[in-house]
Structure formats: structure tokens, C-alpha cells
Amino acid sequence: MEAALRRELAEELGAEASGASRVFLHSSPSDSGVAVQYFFVARLVTMDEARRGGPELADPSRGGYDVDRVDLLGDDLAGVDLKPGSLKEFIMANREALLAEAAGSG
Asked: What is the mean pLDDT of each successive set of 10 residues along the chain, which is 106 residues long?
């Protein structure tokens, strides 16, 4: 799972992160049974949008992929339509602990 996290960070953000702690799991019904999503907190080390790649970025019919930065300590996250909703609730309730965990990564 951590290798997939690092691959996705590189492809979608052109980013590298240090440390990675799995902090949240979301499951939902799917056509093949149950879909499971794993969520991590990590410390962002570098990000260069020019290094992004992947098939979704090359297909204009899939829309834009702009990076949005959200201050977790302010009210910004409340206005974000984050999916799944349970993840947003988790972050809102635990943001100080998540930031402390990310600060300790590295």
C-alpha cells in the first residue's frame, strides 16, 4: 500500500513524501464485493507539478487536475466537497493529531 501511495504522489502531484502512517480506512459496496480505500498522512518533502504524469492527465475529456491547497487549521476544509464524507469528518475531528503525526514523519 505504501508503494502505491508513493507512486500516486509522484504521478498525480509530482511529489515525494517522507514517512507515511495509515490513519483511515473506508469500505463500501462495489460490483465485485467490497471496495476498500486506505488513507495516509505523510510529510510533503517536494512537489513539482511539471513532473506529474499518468493517463488521466493526458486525457482532456477527464477534466482538469489543478492542485488545491487547503489550510487544515482554518475553515477552508469545511467548504471542500471531499469524498468520502466520512474522511472529511475524520480529518475535521482529528486535524491537530494528523498534523502532529505528519510533523513527526521524516
From this structure: 94 94 96 96 95 87 89 91 95 95 81
